[in-house]
Every structure is written in structure tokens, then in C-alpha cells.
């Protein structure tokens, strides 16, 4: 079951829409927003009791972009419970998709906006892994 989602995106309108879609899907899911990868990194490292099952991650952001965040997450972030990362972008560039899937934490790459069917698929993936633990 999805309880917490970390949304890392600098687009306030997209964030508003995404929050609304998630709320319509399940009002019990809590969404935290970080406006760039650096802020997302700070949430994960400074708030040690914060745990999310999914990170929706934009690629193109100021300060720390999505790929820089992924480099940090996979190489430096020390946490036993790693989230599944879905890259969410307005870019449909083949190079971005190929690079995204080179990271083991990335489970999907979707173009904005997020849709409910993605949430359903992610919930299924999480429930399958939890039942095998």
C-alpha cells in the first residue's frame, strides 16, 4: 500500500495537478513536495523518520536536476528502505529514457501528467514485493 510519495518537481502547476490526481486516487496518501533534487535530498537525509514508497522525479530542475539526484540516491543515500523512482518529465527524448533506465531505482519513465493507472500499477508492484518479504 502506498502511504507516502515524495514529489520532486519545480513546476508548481504540475505539482498541483499531481497532488489532485493522487488525492482523487486515495485521500490517505501523503504527498511531500520538493522543488528540486537538492531539497528532496535534504528531506531524505534530514528527516530520518520520513519514509516514502515512491518518488516522482522531474528531470529538468534548477540547483540539482533529476539525474544528479539519482546519482546521489544510488551512490550515497544510505537507507535500507529505498523507494521506487518514477521519472516524470515533459521530455520524450529517447536519450533521457535510456539514461533513466540505467539506474536500478527507476521503475518507470512517464510523460506529464501522472495518471491514476500509474498509481495502480505502482501499488501492485509494492504489494507484490511486500508479500515476498
Write the layout of secondary structure elements.
Layout: E1 4-8, H1 12-25, E2 30-34, H2 37-46, E3 54-57, H3 66-75, E4 84-89, H4 94-100, E5 106-111, H5 116-132
Parallel strand pairs: 1-2, 1-3, 3-4, 4-5
Helix pairs in contact: 2-3
The coarse silhouette is globular
Percent strand equals 15-25%
Which homologous superfamily in CATH is the superfamily? Response regulator
Largest sheet: 5 strands, parallel
What are the defining features of this structure?
133 residues; alpha/beta; Rossmann fold; five-stranded parallel beta sheet; 20% strand
In short:
By secondary structure, the protein is an alpha/beta fold.
What does this 3D model show about the protein?
This protein is of the alpha/beta class. It has a single domain, classed as Rossmann fold (3-Layer(aba) Sandwich). It has 5 helices and 5 strands; from the N terminus they run βαβαβαβαβα. The chain has helices at about 10-25, 35-45, 65-75, 95-100, 115-130, and strands at about 5-10, 30-35, 55, 85-90, 105-110. Strands 2-1-3-4-5 form a 5-stranded parallel β-sheet. Strand 3, helix 3 and strand 4 form a beta-alpha-beta unit. The radius of gyration is 14 Å and the shape is globular. The chain starts with a strand and ends with a helix.
Amino acid at each position: 500500500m502506498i502511504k507516502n510519495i515524495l514529489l520532486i518537481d519545480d513546476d508548481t502547476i504540475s505539482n498541483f495537478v499531481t497532488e489532485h490526481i493522487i488525492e482523487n486516487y486515495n485521500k490517505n496518501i501523503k504527498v511531500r513536495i520538493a522543488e528540486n533534487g537538492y531539497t528532496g535530498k535534504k528531506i531524505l537525509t534530514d528527516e530520518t523518520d520520513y519514509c516514502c514508497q515512491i518518488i516522482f522525479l522531474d528531470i529538468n530542475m534548477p540547483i540539482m536536476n533529476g539525474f544528479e539526484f539519482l546519482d546521489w540516491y544510488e551512490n550515497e543515500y544510505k537507507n535500507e528502505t529505498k523507494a521506487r523512482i518514477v521519472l516524470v518529465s515533459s521530455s520524450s527524448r529517447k536519450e533521457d529514457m535510456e539514461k533513466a533506465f540505467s539506474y536500478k531505482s527507476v521503475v518507470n519513465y512517464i510523460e506529464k501528467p501522472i495518471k491514476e493507472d500509474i498509481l495502480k500499477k505502482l501499488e501492485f508492484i509494492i504489494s507484490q514485493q511486500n508479500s515476498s518479504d
